[in-house]
């Protein structure tokens, strides 16, 4: 595992965890947070040669798709969620960002299914997405660190 990945994974997990608190409390994400984090991670990649240009550009795809979906389906997906995933793509590249996003969607689907079955929520209700994204980033970070220790 590269030095940059060892640095980027926990930084990204911490970033998403901090923002998930705001998402839970206010159902908003500060507009300045994702661009600043993305710019800082881009600077770190430039300093430590973390990602190639192609890895950087493909890392923007998951967040770009979420931003596009947020504009198409205004009330279903928040643009802040897309901006955060876009910043995560800058930090981690496509594979790790896609893995974290997929894990977050599975966790969210499972949680929503349980809430629907227990009749705690209705289909029209919304949930903050960043706590699921934070949990998936923590899972990804722990998984990578354990695999690094085993090597």
Task: Give a short synopsis of this structure.
The chain has 151 residues and is mainly α. 79% of the residues lie in helices and 0% in strands.
Can you walk through the features of this model?
- The protein is an all-alpha fold.
- It is 79% helix and 0% strand.
- It has 6 helices and no strands.
- It has helices at residues 3-26, 33-48, 53-59, 61-72, 79-117, 130-150.
- Helix 3 (53-59) packs across helix 5 (79-117).
- It is globular and about 50 Å long.
- The protein starts with a helix and ends with a helix.
- The model has no long low-confidence stretch (mean pLDDT 88).
Number of helices: 6
The largest sheet is: none
Shape: globular
H-E order: HHHHHH
Proportion of residues in β-strands: under 5%
Uncertain residue ranges: none
Arithmetic mean of pLDDT: 88
Using only C-alpha atoms, the radius of gyration works out to 16 Å
- Compute the number of strand runs: 0
> Could you give the distance between the termini?
9 Å
Helix content: over 70%
Structural class: mainly alpha
Descriptive keywords:
single chain; 151 residues; mainly alpha
Show the helix and strand layout.
Elements (H helix, E strand, L loop, with lengths): L2 H24 L6 H16 L4 H7 L1 H12 L6 H39 L12 H21 L1
Helix pairs in contact: 1-2, 1-5, 1-6, 2-5, 3-5, 4-5, 5-6
